[in-house]
Amino acid sequence: MSAPAAPALWRLLPAGSYAGRARMMMVRSATASRRTWLAFVSGFFEPLFYLLAMGTGLGSLVGDLPGPDGQPISYAAFIAPGLLAASAMNGAVFDSTYNVFFKLHYARLYDSMLATPLGPVDVALGEIGWALLRGGLYATAFLSVMAGFGLIESPWALLALPAALLVAFAFAAIGMAATSFMRSWQDFDLVTLAVLPMFLFSTTFYPLSVYPRWLQIVVECLPLYHAVELMRGLTTGVVGAGLLGHLAYFVVMVVVGVVIAARRLDRLLLR
Amino acid sequence: MAAPTVSVARSTGRAPTALGGVGRVVEHHWRWYRRNWRATAVSSILQPLLFLLAFGVGFGALVGSGPQAAAATGGTPYLVWLAPALLAMSAAQSAAFDSTYPILSGFKWQRIYLAMSAGPITGAQVGLGVLTWTGVKMFGSGAVYVVVIAIFGGVQGPGIVVSLLAALLTGLAVASLITAFAATVENEGNAFSALFRFVVIPMTLFSGTFFPVDRLPEWVQPVVWVSPLWHGTEVARGAALGTWRLLPTLGHLAVLVGLLVVGSVLVARLFTRRLAR
Amino acid sequence: MSDALVQARGLRKSFGAVEAVRGIDVDVAPGEVFGFLGPNGAGKSSTMRMIACVSPRSAGTLSVLGMDPGVDGPRIRARIGVVPQLDNLDAELSVRENLEIYGRYFGLPRRHVKEKAAELLEFAQLTERAGDTVEELSGGMKRRLTIARSLVNDPELLLLDEPTTGLDPQARHLLWDRLYRLKREGVTQIVTTHYMDEAEQLCDRLVVMDGGVIAAEGSPAELIGRYSTREVLELRFDPEHRPTAEALERHAERVEELPDRFLLYTVDGERTHGDVVGAGFVPLSSLVRRSSLEDVFLRLTGRTLVD
Asked: Which among A38, A42, A53 has CB closest to B205?
């Protein structure tokens, strides 16, 4: 959350539901994940396997592709930023939907936390914070791998890390807001229904020019499209004012998501 | 206050035959499925459809009939080349999903396997019944998927029916091995995420579904050979495109049947052991 | 009672059209163990959730530790301990971590929490199981851990919602002993229960709740004295030769007819038994016992507590 937005945002949140101790929730998650370190570590490998397989295999069918500025880049360099964006989305969505739903309705974990001074906003921020911390570690590792494979063309790529965090924050906030409306596991079909097409069609694997114009417009509305464009601009060093537009998209998502999530959690947890 | 009367029939004392026991377990799942089929429709039918659109149509349009693509597919359009492999991949994927969390739930959360084996049905029958049901469902969604492929122009000839059977065999081999593994899992912590990330995802990516495996670096090749999905993909694609040769095909089938037999024996044993304690 | 730790006046809670709590007045004094007694659905848990500041009230006034839960929720929750009806321990953490992390939610320093956890493990007789995951514990151990967890912030007020439901007799007695110790240390406790013996064991004072209202209030002995007789004679008859309640009524002060037996309220159970047999009614079995809160509840509501 950017500093100037914070006070305004604050007034939109329910009073008395924030004790300023979201950090303790993150301590809890860190402690818990020590026992499931393998699952933790495995999260990094998913995009890496995609990069290895698709970059070399599919790349052999395609050859080079035009980059954001029209200059040809290798297929691996084309999909790597896409995979970085997609993995930021996938991780954030998984953490904020399945995990939160389970803790909310099955483990009743949040009920126990609300018996302490923690409020719903601590819970929401703590969970999102942990998702970001984890996502940040994965993104750092993935960017290092990209650098190792020579897929990074510009120092602007360093900004891909904070960009990945913002993208993850936006998806986590929206995901948590959506979870607060879900009644049963059956509703999670809808999550798959939203995430999988985005992963496949948001120019992760091939450029927008493949589509007819009307489909291009649809894709341009999807959040992951903006994330992919943002990352691709940064890692290839094609940086312009257009990137700010992509950024704005995610700032709006964050604000909307956090406000809805906090209000809904308040109502769900404090009945 | 008059107590309601309950008529009590004497127990028959009959136990079902081995096949009958498996049948009852399948029936249980079928009855559940009739009420809840919508939930699985997304994962079993929409998911492969989306992959078909994204790669077969979208990526296919990108590579077009360029020389690199033609060299890889032997001149066949990319969509037609990809479709039978996606059939096998989606069978393997849904096998993996159906054989992880639902199995743990049957033992631990909903405990339906315990309820089943409290009656005259044995642990082995429960395990094999679950596996059979996974196969039935896989065949059903595979058949629907074949129709979808045909609509998008991905079917070349009747060989796709053989591809469907090959996909079913592949899915069953995968399901039997993962079901056996799931029967040993006590809690969800590490096991399934690690299985998906380190086994299932590499399997789907490195089995020649989207591109020929010879495009991969030398050192990945051993991974390819042990992947049941690669064997299944070779058979399914060979059948659909009419490019198969006898000996290699028999070899692939032998591997898949062998894995299925080993997996089924393990399922029967591990279910028996877990339900008997 | 201006020094009451909890004071409610006309307290109400509704969920849509359903009114769970329909205007209750409650005062809980420092140091006492106060009970809410009633069947499932009487409104006990809703009341407890309002006192615990996790459920906004629909009407009336409520003050906890002198503060308003609607305004000072987090500050109140910092000073109370809660034992919910269903254990909600953190299954992803070990026994010890459950205590330590929970203490951290209160903002307690890490060193303090560490010492406190060791002390509470001892209190709950779980020191040997400190490294286990929660899943490996028995039901009684989990309950003890939940209670230990509720004490991590040295609460002035402890809320226990059905503390021993689902436990075997041995585990219950161990828990009662722990709660008694806390009482002696001066921890005020509010307990809900649908077990009469538990209420009699634990509570200094209690209210009987039914249908969202308070039906009676007093100490267990007062309530029994006010609403029941000294003794109760329980009679079971062969269903074929079961007398009517009217026929038995002239032998006792009051008769309750239950599906499987009659309860005859009387000062002297043995003598009443003689009278009934003398009148030609021969029961299959009979039992004379002291009146309990169960009888108070039956008298007040016309229903038994545990169906």
From this structure: A53
